[in-house]
């Protein structure tokens, strides 16, 4: 995911509009919370944000304050932590942070770059879906054929020029195959009929 965010930021700087699929990771996050014993009532989206104090309030009314942030390309992540003295006596501890014996509950809030958010929102438009289908038909098939039929998963030579020559030979073989299929096979079929 980080490469996709970096690519969308770099393309925006060059005034290029990227189109591509986006994999949502919300399902994996919910599975991770379920694995450590967090119920749906205590997922991060159930915590209320207080704009005045820049803190979150858990469903039981305890305050989580920002402790540290982490900046990555396309996003800024801030971890909000509750005090262990608030969480230890809490009656909902088993549903909220049962696996965490040492610290209080924490949540990580991600602030996405507007460019990345725009890229993510474009993925569901009909135009984008049509472009992705077209790409699969035009580009992905050729790549799959080169990998499967010619074994072009890795170049067998070293150096940019030699690798380019090897790619050129592979593409030439593909184009000749297509030319035979489109040009000669109809003639042969018509002649034998």
State the gist of this model.
By secondary structure, the chain is α+β, with helices and mostly antiparallel strands. 51% of the residues lie in helices and 16% in strands.
Mean residue pLDDT: 84
| Continuous helix count | 7
Instruction: Summarize the amount of helix as a percent range.
Output: 40-55%
Strand tally, please? 5
> How many individual domains?
2
Structure description:
This protein is of the alpha+beta class and 193 residues long. The chain has two domains: 121 residues, no CATH class; 67 residues, no CATH class. The protein has a five-stranded antiparallel beta sheet with strand order 1-2-3-4-5. Strand 2 and strand 3 form a beta hairpin. The chain is elongated.
Quick tags:
193 residues, 5-stranded antiparallel sheet, 7 helices, 5 strands, elongated
Strand and helix map with partners:
Layout: H1 2-13, H2 26-35, E1 48-50, E2 55-57, E3 63-72, E4 75-82, H3 84-87, H4 93-97, E5 106-112, H5 114-122, H6 126-150, H7 160-192
Antiparallel strand pairs: 1-2, 2-3, 3-4, 4-5
